[in-house]
Amino acid sequence: MPVYLSPYFLSILAALIAVLPFRAGGQGINGPTGAQAWMMGGVSATSADVWSAANNPAAMCWLEKSQLGLYTEQRFMEKNLNLSHISGVWKNKWLHAGGQIHYFGYEVFNQQRLGLSLGKKLSENLALGVQLNYLATNIREYGNSGAWILGMGVLYKPIPELTTAINFYNINQARYKHSINESVPAIARLGLSYEFSKKVTASIETEQTLNQKTIFRGGLRYQLHESIALAIGAANNPVYYTFGVGLKMRQLKLDMASGFHEVFGFTPHLSLAFPLN
Fold first, then answer.
1. pLDDT of 78
2. How far is 215 from 235, CA to CA, in rounded Å?
3. Which CATH number describes the domain made up of 7-275?
4. Among residues 204, 135, 220, which one has the least CA distance to residue 176?
5. Is 243:267 a contact under the CB 8 Å cutoff?
6. Residue 120 burial by CB count (10 A; 0-12/13-18/19+): exposed, middle or buried?
7. For 54-84, what is each residue's pLDDT tens digit?
8. For residues 59 and 119, is the Cβ–Cβ distance under 8 A?
């Protein structure tokens, strides 16, 4: 059963999320985005989907159509720890452009993240992406603060079945200004994904946040039917288990995932994506 978190504890937890690389299910607003990632333990760098606008801008280049996506999670089943996200990717013959809006928290503590991404294929199997974000944090007892954050990503397919990717978040090592005198987490993610067949895909990822322990993530996806996929995953630091299902309904793609933390309980994830053309 989920652990009940009192309002006082929520305020403390929210403040920790704001100033530390929070690990129990992601780093606050800076963690992996999209239920498809959380179906597989949070592996996000190699996934080519509409959430790539937030996770790895280089991966956007493998999308065949412009897309819009909606994502939400309720961390540890607590109504005050909701994350809401809108992501969009627009494709043309020269490049892929992406936009993202995040909102996390409630009136005592909240964060907003706005981002623009650009991705370009340099060859048939190599792409480069860049990202500009503005991260704003509001803590009732401390006030408002914000920071401009740069990111970049690379995705490379040495063979059709193997995808490798690396993504950097906050390469400029920005700090919050004004009332919150803390650094924004600087994060690097390195991922590998291998398609054993048209039905089975395995993915692994390492995540390193500056001055923190390395996180290892992994997941296995099974395409049960052309419209149904099942997946399981896990991560460490701390131990976190995930599972989920993906459904394709005509033009709509619905992903549902749940993660379990041994202390705080379950976190449900839900995302919906659909083409724009």
1. 84
2. 7
3. 2.40.160.60
4. 135
5. no
6. middle
7. 999 999 999 989 999 999 999 888 888 889 9
8. yes
